Amino acid sequence: VTYKVSVGAVALEHQRGVFVCFEDVTAFEQVGQMRRDFVANVSHELRTPLTALIGFIETLKGPAKNDETARARFLDIMDDESKRMNRLVGDLLSLSRVEAQERVRPTEVMYPADLIRTAAHSLNALAKKAGVQLETDLPEETVSMVGDRDQLRQVLNNLAENAIKYSGAGSTVTLALTGPKYEPRLRAQAVRLSVLDTGQGIEPHHVPRLTERFYRVDSHRSREMGGTGLGLAIVKHIINRHRGRLKVASVRGQGSCFTVILPVA
Ligand code: ADP
């Protein structure tokens, strides 16, 4: 706990005195610390690809000037690193946009089954390339809800891309929709959008921290897969805006299930 202590003198008619004021500034300090950590993390994440780019440019201008093979290889690496920076800046912008909108209630009437169909369609190529089977499981009846279509599309994309990336060849990823049904914790009728995978799963102690910015279970693997470490932080803010919640169930070695529970109205 951090206190701010102020001391002063007071004069009231015939009386004089001093006052000592203790102000609990713990929350304020924590926000300041979080901001400083975030800036340090962003700088570190940007510096890594930037250092690689500077190094390769210098090598290409100097020692590898006339080496055709090295040139092609270095250009490929530079291509990867600059794309990584671009993704990071894109995710940082998304994060700041969703944070700014968090208090604005969404008003669009939309159909979550359409979102799943669109996500499955657009992720088909990625899944194929990764050797992952992508399936959908949708209810017969039409389900509608109030939400922000673009943001919820981003939620599904981030979750499904993770499932495909981290599960690996031979696994199955299912995008499912159920409900609406009464959710006691939200005290509302809600739908459930689930992304299930049969991949490596996540150790239980990591689960509560997954939506923290830049938190990764395996940093090396995340970077190798082109991750920015911001995907689930963005997901969390969008779900908060929709007054919903994210439930993560995972068994190491068997797979994970990320369920987004969203009130329909
Ligand atoms: P990243 O850009 O690293 O993927 P995210 O915020 O999207 O960042 O995810 C945070 C971390 O959670 C990932 O680095 C990964 O370790 C873990 N993770 C997310 N989804 C899954 C999944 N379906 N299976 C296993 N691990 C996952």
Automatic annotation (TrEMBL):
<protein>
    <recommendedName>
        <fullName>histidine kinase</fullName>
        <ecNumber>2.7.13.3</ecNumber>
    </recommendedName>
</protein>
<dbReference type="GO" id="GO:0000155">
    <property type="term" value="F:phosphorelay sensor kinase activity"/>
</dbReference>
<dbReference type="GO" id="GO:0004721">
    <property type="term" value="F:phosphoprotein phosphatase activity"/>
</dbReference>
<dbReference type="GO" id="GO:0005886">
    <property type="term" value="C:plasma membrane"/>
</dbReference>
<keyword id="KW-0808">Transferase</keyword>
<keyword id="KW-0597">Phosphoprotein</keyword>
<keyword id="KW-0067">ATP-binding</keyword>
<keyword id="KW-0418">Kinase</keyword>
<dbReference type="GO" id="GO:0016036">
    <property type="term" value="P:cellular response to phosphate starvation"/>
</dbReference>
<keyword id="KW-1003">Cell membrane</keyword>
<dbReference type="GO" id="GO:0005524">
    <property type="term" value="F:ATP binding"/>
</dbReference>
<keyword id="KW-0472">Membrane</keyword>
<feature type="domain" description="Histidine kinase">
    <location>
        <begin position="41"/>
        <end position="265"/>
    </location>
</feature>
<keyword id="KW-0902">Two-component regulatory system</keyword>
<keyword id="KW-0547">Nucleotide-binding</keyword>
